[in-house]
Amino acid sequence: MVYEKVISGKLVDLKAADIDDAEFTLSIRQDPEMTKHLPRLDITMDQQKEWIKRQREEENGYFFVVWDKQGNRLGTMSVYDINGDTGEGGRLALYGDPMQKIEAGLLMLEFDFDVLRLEHIIGWVEADNKPALRWNKMFGAIFNEPEIDKRGKMIQRFTITKDDARVACKKIRGILQKTVASE
Amino acid sequence: MTNEEKLELLEEVMEMDPGTLKPEMALENLEEWNSIAVISFIAMVDDEFDKVIKSAVIKEQKTVADLMALMEEE
After folding, report:
1. Which residues of A touch B43 (CB under 8 A)?
2. Is A1 inside a domain boundary?
3. Hey, which end of chain B has fewer CB within 10 Å, N or C?
């Protein structure tokens, strides 16, 4: 599905991906730095364009490209497999400086809970992906015990409730406002 | 605050084992110095030293010693 509005922050914007973003969204998922813990996409440009077209038509998910204020693409974020009051968060791959990345995370969660009015965001990370574990915990995630997934990899599933996200986002936004506003 | 105490705080911020960090370490070589560590550092300095570090200042820091130098009250 396409969210027509730009989700605008102080440092970044989130915009619904379209086929013009195919090259970027494919390249970021083929970047060796990004694909340490995120599955690498071994597909063609045409296949990526088709995937984006399908994403735009699917009713239970949103796929965003993160942009900086200078018009450069920084990464991708998504909520998908929305079922009732729960969606899955993922497809997170971001370049940019720490404040940009943090604000992108905030904007995505605020979209999930305030615009889509979801109650839970679920997801999973590879159990040895410490930065991702920490990132999600910072935004209020509660993690399950590690388990082995279909690929044979050790993962940890998590849930972020609306209430936990609100508390976490308020704290993070307070820090962002101080450190960015003071420039 | 002693330098040892500052290093301990930084190790907590970066979720590193005690005794791991050394002042001369370059931040660009520390995988743990990521977005979450940056915001945790800013929050820690605000809490401990009542001081707001601008994000532009953070970008200029190159070593652990540089971060330690920021950990002072104004």
Report:
1. 171, 175
2. no
3. C
Extract long-range pairs of B18-27: CB within 8 Å, 24+ residues apart: B21/B64, B22/B64, B23/B63, B23/B64, B23/B65, B23/B68, B24/B63, B24/B64, B24/B65, B25/B63, B25/B64, B26/B62, B26/B63, B27/B61, B27/B62, B27/B63, B27/B64, B27/B66, B27/B67
Asked if the interface predicted TM-score (ipTM) of this complex is over 0.85, the answer is no
Average pLDDT, chain A: 92
Determine whether the interchain pair A98/B52 forms a contact, defined as Cβ–Cβ distance below 8 Å: no
CATH code of A53's domain: 3.40.630.30
Query: pLDDT (tens digit, 9 = 90+) per residue, A62-73?
Result: 999 999 999 999
Considering only the beta carbons, identify the residue of A102, A182, A183 that sits closest to B35: A102
**Contact state of A102 with B39 under an 8 Å Cβ cutoff:** yes
Q: Is B43 on the interface with A (CB under 8 A)?
A: yes
* Residues A29-62 pLDDT 10s: 888 877 766 777 788 999 999 999 999 999 999 9
pLDDT in tens, A11-34: 999 999 999 999 999 999 888 877
Residue A2 belongs to a domain: no
Q: Which domains does chain B have, with CATH numbers?
A: 3-70 (1.10.1200.10)
Q: Which residues of A touch B (CB under 8 A)?
A: 97-99, 101-102, 130-131, 134-135, 138, 171-172, 175-176, 178-180, 182-183
- Look up the pTM and report it: 0.89
